[in-house]
């Protein structure tokens, strides 16, 4: 299921959407609670001001309240709205000097909180199974020119209405956030389908290429996908070119064999010719040479695709050990100066062919020493093979690498081997350099391969 890119994006978007809506819901819930609490506070503060408007103190400083209160709920027992006037004692104790009729049959705990005149204290307190909002207002009441009394007006409101209002809000919030989330999820899926449509077009175009209906990815793609489509077009073109080269090589092979076959047929047609055996031998040898060369050319058509890095040291050691046995009469000293971790993006068969040709050539001409070095220089990997033989003159260096369409045009002694090395290196966008070895005095052949990112 998670192998689908669309499923991954939808799942990631769903998780982000849930987190976003959850945080949004939490923020809205906190904001609503703060707003509702502030509404309760304003309501209780208005009740305090209403009580202050009717409160009186007699000549002895006793609180006098009218029979009718500003808020009718204060006259109904258990209405959920309560009021008291508290007279703090000198020992920081407190006692109600007046209570509303709504407190009939109910007692409320009182925790003394020192308040200056005009100071307000608002909080939510527990009261049995329910809760109460409480607001206290400190006042200094002057009931004679020389006498005053500290009082605290205490009004309370049941939080049942607040809890019901909060529950209603949360229910609506969950409903609408759920609806919004569902809509956003559908929109997200539609946006993903629209955004992934270019990839679906690429897939469809690739199927058309495979069916032979078109030759390349066409149309206009988003610029983020252009490197992908360009690389795919290059890959398709490279594969098409390689197939064409293979077909050309096979056609060349068929054409090249016509002449030897014609010679053999002519010789067979004249059985009295004394040199029949010699002619057949020469022509079959020529045919074998042509087949080998054309098969090598056909093998070149398989290069240029995707490649994995290949370690250089291990195959180099195997080739060196094998050639040491072949040239055991020389007692050659092989010096392999190659980092065991060094790698090159090349097919293993091509690497073995390169190393085999280069080292075999060096062993043929070396007197006693062959040295191989490999290192990364700037933006390319350089592999050099040196020997202490007679070397290759500057005039002959270009000639030994020249090879025509026919295999017999290769220079004897070096021809096919070094020409094939050149062709393989060029197939990997590299180059072959020939010069004199500054250390050993013989020839030095250097393969330079670009390091592609």
TrEMBL record:
GO terms for cellular component: plasma membrane. It catalyses: ATP + protein L-histidine = ADP + protein N-phospho-L-histidine. The chain crosses the membrane at residues 173-192. Keywords: ATP-binding, Kinase, Membrane, Nucleotide-binding, Phosphoprotein, Transferase, Transmembrane, Transmembrane helix, Two-component regulatory system. Residues 252-453 form the Histidine kinase domain. Its EC number is 2.7.13.3. Its main location: membrane. It is found in: Membrane. One of its GO terms (molecular function) is ATP binding. InterPro entries: HAMP_dom, HATPase_C_sf, HATPase_dom, His_kinase_dom, HisK_dim/P_dom, HisK_dim/P_sf, PhoQ/CarS-like_HATPase, Sig_transdc_His_kin-like_C. Residues 193-244 form the HAMP domain. SUPFAM superfamilies: ATPase domain of HSP90 chaperone/DNA topoisomerase II/histidine kinase, Homodimeric domain of signal transducing histidine kinase. PANTHER family: SENSOR HISTIDINE KINASE YKOH, SENSOR PROTEIN PHOQ. This is histidine kinase. It comes from Thiohalobacter thiocyanaticus. The lineage of its organism: Bacteria, Pseudomonadati, Pseudomonadota, Gammaproteobacteria, Thiohalobacterales.
């Amino acid at each position: 299921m998670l192998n689908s890119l669309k499923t991954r994006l939808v799942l990631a978007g769903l998780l982000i959407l849930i987190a976003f809506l959850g945080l949004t819901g939490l923020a809205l819930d906190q904001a609503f609670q703060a707003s509702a609490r502030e509404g309760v506070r304003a309501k209780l503060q208005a009740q305090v001001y209403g009580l202050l408007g009717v409160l009186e103190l007699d000549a002895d400083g006793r609180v006098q309240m009218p029979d009718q209160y500003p808020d009718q709920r204060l006259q109904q027992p258990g209405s959920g709205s309560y009021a008291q006037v508290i007279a703090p004692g000198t020992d920081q104790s407190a006692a109600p000097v007046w209570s509303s009729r709504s407190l009939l049959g109910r007692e409320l705990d009182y925790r003394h909180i020192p308040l200056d005149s005009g100071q307000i204290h608002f909080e939510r307190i527990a009261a049995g199974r329910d809760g109460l909002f409480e607001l206290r207002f400190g006042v200094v009441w002057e009931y004679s020119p020389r006498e005053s009394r500290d009082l605290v007006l205490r009004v309370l409101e049941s939080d049942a209405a607040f809890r019901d209002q909060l529950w209603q809000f949360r229910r609506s919030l969950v409903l609408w956030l759920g609806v919004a989330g569902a809509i956003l999820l559908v929109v997200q899926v539609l946006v993903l389908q629209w955004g992934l449509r270019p990839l679906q077009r690429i897939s469809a175009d690739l199927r058309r290429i495979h069916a032979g209906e078109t030759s390349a990815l066409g149309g206009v793609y988003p610029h983020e996908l252009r490197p992908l489509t360009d690389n795919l077009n290059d890959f398709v073109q490279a594969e098409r070119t390689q197939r064409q080269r293979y077909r050309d090589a096979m056609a060349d092979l068929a054409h090249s064999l016509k002449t030897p076959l014609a010679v053999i047929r002519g010789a067979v047609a004249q059985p009295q010719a004394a040199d029949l055996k010699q002619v057949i031998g020469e022509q079959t040898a020529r045919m074998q040479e042509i087949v080998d060369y054309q098969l090598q050319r056909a093998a070149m058509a398989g290069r240029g695709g995707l490649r994995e890095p290949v370690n250089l040291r291990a195959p180099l050691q195997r080739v060196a050990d094998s050639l040491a046995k072949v040239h055991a009469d020389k007692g050659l000293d092989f010096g392999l100066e190659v980092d065991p971790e060094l790698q090159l993006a090349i097919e293993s068969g091509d690497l073995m062919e390169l190393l085999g040709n280069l080292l075999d050539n060096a062993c043929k001409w070396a007197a006693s020493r062959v040295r191989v070095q490999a290192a990364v220089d700037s933006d390319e990997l350089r592999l050099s093979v040196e020997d202490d033989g007679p070397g290759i003159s500057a005039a002959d260096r270009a000639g030994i690498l020249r090879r025509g369409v026919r295999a017999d045009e290769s220079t004897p002694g070096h021809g096919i081997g070094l020409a094939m090395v050149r062709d393989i290196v060029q197939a990997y966008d590299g180059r072959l350099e020939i010069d004199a070895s500054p250390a050993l005095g013989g020839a030095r052949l250097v393969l330079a391969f670009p390091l592609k990112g």
